[in-house]
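Long-time lurker, first post. I've been practising inverse folding by hand and with some scripts of my own, and I keep getting stuck on stretches where the structure tokens seem ambiguous. Below is the full token string for one chain I'm working on. Before anyone asks, I'm not after the true native sequence, just a reasonable design that respects the backbone. If someone could post their per-position residues I'd love to compare against what I wrote down in my notebook.
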């Protein structure tokens, strides 16, 4: 298991997105869109480091993990100092599961019972507060490197 997720080096992306580049994830909700400015983690190293050692995360910020294929993703909170919500999305960018308020610095494996290709990490408790629910549709606005 790596710092943020379990994967192997063979899962390297074919077209990496620059690390620390800001993009946006928007959830389509009946009462209006819910958006987060995100850093994209698409390389093995950026996924491994994730949000480790950060002392805070801006209110509407997050990190979007992009994997090459849809499979059961497993995360942990090793060296992560803040509580996070993990939002798992399938190939169609539909929410398939949410883990709320993951315990900082825990080595417990975190996953949902459905395959996902994308995982969005945001501040703990924010998914419920903003009304993000299973089956919601997301749209990504990814900046090109």
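-- Answer (accepted) --
I ran through it position by position. Result:
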């Amino acid at each position: 298991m790596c710092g943020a997720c379990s994967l192997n080096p063979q899962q390297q992306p074919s077209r990496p997105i620059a690390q620390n580049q800001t993009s946006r994830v928007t959830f389509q909700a009946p009462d209006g869109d819910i958006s987060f400015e995100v850093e994209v983690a698409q390389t093995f190293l950026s996924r491994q480091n994730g949000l480790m050692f950060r002392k805070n995360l801006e209110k509407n910020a997050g990190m979007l993990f992009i994997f090459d294929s849809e499979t059961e993703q497993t995360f942990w909170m090793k060296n992560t100092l803040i509580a996070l919500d993990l939002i798992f999305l399938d190939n169609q960018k539909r929410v398939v599961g949410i883990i709320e308020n993951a315990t900082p610095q825990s080595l417990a494996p975190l996953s949902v019972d459905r395959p996902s290709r994308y995982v969005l990490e945001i501040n703990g408790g924010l998914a419920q507060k903003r009304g993000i629910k299973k089956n919601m549709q997301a749209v990504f606005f990814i900046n090109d490197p």
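A couple of notes from the structure itself: Strands lie at 22-28, 34-41, 61-71, 84-89, 95-102, 116-123, 137-141. Residues 44-49 form the longest helix (6 residues). Happy to go over any region you disagree with.
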